[in-house]
Amino acid sequence: MAKVRKAVIPAAGMGTRFLPATKAIAKEMLPIVNKPSIQLIVEEAAASGIEEVIVITGRGKTEIVDHFDAHPQLEETLRRAGKEALLREVILPSQMVKIATARQQRPLGLGHAILCARHLVGDEPFAVFLPDDLVDAVRPCARQLIDVFESTGKSVVALMNVPREETSAYGIAAGTLDAKDPRIVHVHTMVEKPPVDDAPSTLAIVGRYVLDPSVFSYLTRTNPGRGDEIQLTDALAAMMVERGLCGYLFEGNRFDAGDVTGYLLANLNWARRVPRIWAAIEQYVAAHPGSSRR
Ligand code: G1P
Question: What angle do CA 259, 235, 13 make, to 5 degrees?
């Protein structure tokens, strides 16, 4: 079976949930502690064995590409100043994976964004990372999915259980649990953001996928769906009927960094790893119990 070497990161969205912060800044560049959130995504991709990342961009997103490029002038300044640790941090993003870009010219939906990468992906399986979804896991979430893809030969979507009242915010999948591995779901139903009363389960699709390249031909035949956009979930539902599809109840904590609360929680989660910062946060919380009105 072909190795999963490539990943697509659709990053053309406007970030309306984060306005006004995202009026002039790509939401993917907002930092989690001291790294743009999209760097955590690319780090997960590299740690999962991905060698080439295709970023789908749109207007105002060139800073993402700059971040993953070398910056000789800055590197030289840091080198001359003897700031070796910072220098390594600055160089790292340009060395993790090979980066390619494709442009989504119109906001026609997630499915359409993925289709924009078709010529760069070619005829091999690939991963998709939605940059709003940050997953903190011991074994990278995408690696967990790639292992399932390699053992089952079927496309895989990441799943997590959500409260029923939240089902209308996600693609929802339903299916039967695998007899041997209770984290694998053999999916038989998929629907994008169903009304709560119609949700076929409480299993939400999280933004990690490993897909067979045949998904592109399903995408070309997918009509606009929810929100009048070409939905990846709809193409996957058609693919599932003919080729089968697995869900995987991944291990790890997921944060919705496209939402202000989820973003702040993600910052707290990653700040815990930096003793100096975490000590300051604990001190602040201890000194300011309860909520603040100012
Ligand atoms: C997208 C997908 C949806 C999935 C969600 C996960 O929706 O369309 O199926 O559940 O990501 O974050 P979005 O939140 O981009 O509207």
Answer: 30
The pLDDT tens digits of the residues spanning 172-193 come to: 999 999 999 999 999 999 999 9
**Which 3-state string (H, E, C) describes 141-159?**
HHHHHHHHHHHHCCEEEEE
> What are the pLDDT digits (tens) for 124-178?
999 999 999 999 999 999 999 999 999 999 999 999 999 999 999 999 999 999 9
How many degrees, rounded to 5, is the angle at CA 221 between CA 142 and CA 258?
40
Round to whole Å and give the CA distance between 173 and 208: 14
Give residue ranges with CB within 6 A of ligand 1. 110, 130, 132-133, 170-171, 192, 204-207, 231-233
* Pairing label, strands 203-211, 155-161: antiparallel
Residues 6+ apart with CB under 8 A from 160: 203, 204, 206, 249, 250, 254
Q: Which helix (H) or strand (E) holds 10?
A: strand 6-10
C-alpha to C-alpha distance for 181 and 159, rounded to whole angstroms: 14
What is the tens place of the pLDDT at every residue in 201-227?
999 999 999 999 999 999 999 999 999
Ligand 1 centroid vs 62 CA: distance in angstroms?
23
| Ligand 1: nearest atom to the Cα of 170 | 10
Entry pTM: 0.96
* Cα–Cα distance measured from residue 82 to residue 99, given in angstroms and rounded to the nearest whole number: 29
**Topology of domain 6-293, CATH:** Spore Coat Polysaccharide Biosynthesis Protein SpsA; Chain A (3.90.550)
Report how far Cα 289 is from the mean position of its chain's Cα atoms: 34
Q: Please give the C-alpha separations between residue 137 and each of 134, 142, 176, 202, 272, in angstroms, as whole numbers.
A: 10, 10, 25, 22, 14
